[in-house]
Structure formats: C-alpha cells, structure tokens
TrEMBL record:
Pfam families for this protein: AlaDh_PNT_N
InterPro entries hit by this protein: AASS (IPR051168), AlaDH/PNT_N (IPR007886), Lys1 (IPR027281)
Amino acid composition bias (Basic and acidic residues), ranges on this chain: 1-14
Name of this chain's protein: Alanine dehydrogenase
GO molecular function (one): saccharopine dehydrogenase (NAD+, L-lysine-forming) activity
CDD domains according to UniProt: SDH_like
Superkingdom, taxonomy of origin: Bacteria
Length: 317
C-alpha cells in the first residue's frame, strides 16, 4: 500500500489552495486501490479537516510516514524529508535565484521532485498551471489598482468576494475612464483576462488601431501576441514556432505599446532566453505611458523589471 500525504501549506504568506479536494481524494482511492490518502491537519485550507474526515479520509498532524507528499507551493527547506517523492510548484525551472538552495537541498537529500510546472501532455503542452481564474483575478486586481492609483474608485478586494459572481458584480458598480488596456498572451490565463474585459463591454481594438488611437473617448483594450512584442534580430519574418524554439534570436518590439498603454496585464508565458518587454531604463523615459501593471506571470525581475517580489493575496499591490 502506497501512502499519499496531502501536506499543509507552510509558506508565508499562507496559501489556502489544495492539491486534492476531499472528493478527489475519494476518487484517487477508488481508482487506485493500492493508494491510501492521508491529509495533514491545517487551519488555512479552503477545505476544513472535517470535510476530509466526512469523506473517510484520515487527518493527522504527522505525515512523515507517507511515501509521496503533495502540496501546492514550495515546501520549507527544513521540512524536506530525505528519499521522499514530492509534488509541488518549486519555481526553479527558470533557474530562479531565490530558490537555488531549495533545489540544492532536494538533490542533496535524494528527493524525487515532480514539479507541476513541467508536467505536459503528449503534444508538449502543460497540463497544470495558471488558468482562467488567474486571468480573471489578475485583470480584476489590475483594474482595482488603476482605480486606487487614480483615486477614482475602490473595488472590493477579490479575495473578500464570495465568488466570481460577486467579483463581476463589483465591476458593474464602477465607471471606467477612457483608458487604454493591453494584455499579453492567448493561453488559459489570457482567456480569463479576455473574459473579464468582455464582461465589462470594453471596446476591443487591433494592435495597429490601438497604437494609432492616442486618446480614446471610452475604454479600449488590445490583445498582444508574441509577433507584436518580439521580432527577429536578423530581420527575418516572425515565425511563432521558431520563436518558441529559439527565443534568444529575437529582440524587444514592445516599446511602441509601452508608449500607448495605461494599464498592462501580463498574461503570457515568458522564457528567460526571450527578450524582456522593457527595461528599468525604459520605464524612466518620459514617453513611457504605462502607470499600472498587473503581472500575472510573476517572473521575478523577468519580462517586467519592476516585478521585484511576489505579492500576497491580501496585499496585491
């Protein structure tokens, strides 16, 4: 019998997400009869200990005897147990400096790490990652920041809303000024952003129209894909698959949009070998128009140099 332990989240600030819901724990045991799921007691989860117990899943303080341990965020280095199998987002695949010690410890303790970020299907597409709700909340937080920055409205914090319906309702209470919004990407996160902007009935413009319109009469937005913010260094025509395979052969083409955007919502995957959207020096220029950035990608000092640290759910700004 293989014991699968659901770890409590211990990273600060706390994260109330779970790798498996109570119902999913039951499904795992039904489908894989040689697996027993055990949940580590936690007071911060979105599901209470009692909800797991009601489904027949044992809850206990110590899960160190489990063969496999699943969490969401990084496990504290001091809690890593030698020889175990761990599932969590390690935030090391891009050689993040701040988690170097974590990866070194994993290697030293001969731990088998299954990082959600690198799990893919047969076509090479990620199967676990930020999705629709990250885009919805990221866009909402960007609009909330815009309202606070301009002192024109104060949206209720997303985490205080009872659910998506209430969050969207909050948007119906504000009158958005004629701002220009640009967002990057076309994946699951970007689709969440698009859904929220469409809900608000904001006018959509093609990237070329967006650049031509200096000051709109009402709010507008545009969606930017890689061909809009990156270009071949050798002057050749842009090729998306080539960009994915050889991002180091491309350079920045985003600056025209930096001079034409008020709110930027970054929702596209960024490869460290690809060009950044802009530099810290670009941000100091008088024609740099962006005043609010919602960086859902959250690559520390990555494509957006002003992202110096991850923000907290309760304090997103």
């Amino acid at each position: 019998m293989t014991k699968l332990g659901i770890k409590k989240e211990e990273k600060t600030p706390p994260d109330n997400r779970v790798p498996l819901t109570p119902e999913q724990c039951v499904e795992v045991q039904r489908k894989f009869t040689d697996i027993q799921v055990i949940v580590q007691s936690s007071h911060v989860r979105c599901f209470s200990d009692e909800e797991y117990r009601e489904k027949g899943i044992p809850v206990q303080e110590d899960v160190s005897d489990c063969d496999v341990l699943m969490g969401v965020k990084e496990v504290p280095i001091s809690d890593l147990l030698p020889g175990k199998i761990y599932f969590f987002f390690s935030h090391t695949i891009k050689k993040q400096e701040y988690n170097r010690k974590l990866l070194q410890t994993i290697l030293q303790k001969k731990i088998q790490l299954v990082d959600y970020e690198v799990l893919t299907d047969k076509n090479g597409f990620r199967i676990i990652g930020f999705g629709r709700f990250a885009g919805l909340v990221g866009a909402y937080n960007g609009l909330r920041a815009l309202g606070l920055r301009r002192n024109i409205f104060d949206l209720k914090p997303a985490h205080q809303c009872a659910g998506l319906e209430e969050m969207l309702y909050q948007l119906t209470l504000v009158n958005l000024p004629p701002v220009k919004i640009a967002f990057t990407g076309d994946g699951r996160v970007a689709n969440g952003v698009l859904e929220l902007l469409e809900f608000m009935k904001i006018q959509r413009l093609l990237p070329e129209q967006f650049l031509e319109m200096e000051q709109p009469e009402k709010p507008v937005y545009t969606q930017l894909l890689p061909q809009h913010y990156a270009m071949r260094k050798d002057g050749s025509a842009f090729d998306l698959q080539h960009f994915f395979k050889r991002p180091e052969m491309y350079e920045n083409a985003f600056l025209p949009f930096a001079r034409a955007t008020d709110l930027l919502i970054a929702a596209a995957y960024w490869d460290p070998k690809a060009p950044v959207l802009f530099t810290a020096e670009d941000m100091k220029q008088p024609d740099f128009r962006i005043s609010v950035i919602s960086d859902i990608t959250c690559d520390i000092e990555g494509s957006i140099p002003s992202t110096k640290r991850a923000s907290a759910i309760a304090e997103p700004f």
